[in-house]
Request: fold
Amino acid sequence: MKYLALGGLVTVAMFSPINGHKVAEDLLRHVKYKLKQLKNNAHYLKKRGLIEFIKENNDEVVVRITDGGRKYLKTFDIDDMVLNRPEHWDGKWRLVIFDVPEEHKKARDALRRKLKDLCFVRLQDSVWVTPYPCDDEIRFLREIFNIPFNVDVFTINDLKHHEINLKKHFKIT
Reply:
């Protein structure tokens, strides 16, 4: 969906009277996406109701982000991302475990920073915990940081000797 938003930005940049075409070229140089991937993703987003295809009078098809799509984008804006904190804790812990190779060190470090920003507690360098549901957010981070197979989320019922301190930390009973 961010690529669709970028497409709108490129279009606006191209028609800018002051070096717009140069700005558009610079933006497009940073977008590397296979056409088949783009089509598959667009149909997936349509199926989820996040975008819609509108046929124009010249047999052109316009892709529009729906209200639900805008809400989804806002929810997963990486800078403003927060975990939903239900009023009542479901008694389950979410363990995020990752093994990101050294060659992806920047992505690994960015993931750690984001987990800390999201108020996860570090149990080990690559093991973090929260009492809040986080599957969608972690899925989004895996994709954004391009480490889809190196990060897992486990939902567990207890954390043995860590549980008392974690409950105090998160102020849950």
Remarks:
- The chain has seven helices and six strands.
- The chain has two domains: 2-75, 93-170.
- Residues 6-24 have pLDDT under 50 and may be disordered.
